[in-house]
Amino acid sequence: MATATYVYCVVQSGRKPSTLRVPAGLPGGEKPRVDQVGSKMWVVHAPVPLERYGTQPLEESLRDLEWVSAIAVAHEAVVEQFAGLRGVTVIPMKLFTLFSSPDRAIGEMQRRSKRLTSVFAKLQGCEEWGVRIMRGPSRSAVKGDGKPASGTAFLTARKRARDESVAALRDSAQAADDAYVLLAEIAADHRRRQQEASGVIPPLLDAAFLVPVRRRARFRALAERAAEDVLQRGGRLTLTGPWPAYNFVSAAGQQA
Q1: CA 171/CA 177 separation, integer angstroms
Q2: pTM to 2 decimals?
Q3: CA torsion angle 143 149 153 154 (round to 10)
Q4: Which of 11, 16, 49, 205 could disulfide-link 176, Cβ–Cβ 3.0 to 4.6 Å?
Q5: What is the pLDDT of residues 168-225, one digit of tens each?
Q6: Rg (CA), the chain
Q7: 197 and 114, same structural domain?
């Protein structure tokens, strides 16, 4: 059976990481294995069948969101297993990072070893946290005991409601910016994630923070403080993590 080589992540470790408890990996593929690509550097990869992960079948499968979601879960399970090992730093690869052979995958990581070493230095001792802030319920409802006494009063009430709504939206947007600035102060790195155009209301903030593990408790405490401020100003803050640092690395390439 013809196969391609799927790369899950690159790992920095003083010794070969154990694969004893590594999950099965992508459906139809073999169990992930580890090969050395440099000093204290290892690539986690596995053969996957081209009949499922070749260019044409992959393009067709990408239209199935449930299938993509299942692949993402399997990919993430492998990455998180290595990220959870003591004394290990992980550079996660993007979904569907494929090479034509193990030698091509290993060779490419060796070619990029200088860049990977630089990324490892940045990620060491850190973890990624996500912060998303959505608009809360409108605070601009106009209260009254009955209908306005006149047309002028009605128009005045409508204008006041509109002005209050605009002010509330601005305040909630500012609250999101304030939260971002507050959390960025203690992060080693941070970035706003780009939102794709869609029919849903976009978040006020969708951001990732690279946080040193030693600052985790402080970061969470600040996030709780920010959540209270955001709530009072018309928004809802959600904190997720810790995650492998997907938003702070560059992929080592796609299909090759």
Answers
A1: 10
A2: 0.78
A3: 70
A4: 205
A5: 567 688 889 999 999 999 999 999 987 655 556 789 899 999 999 999 999 999 999 9
A6: 24
A7: no
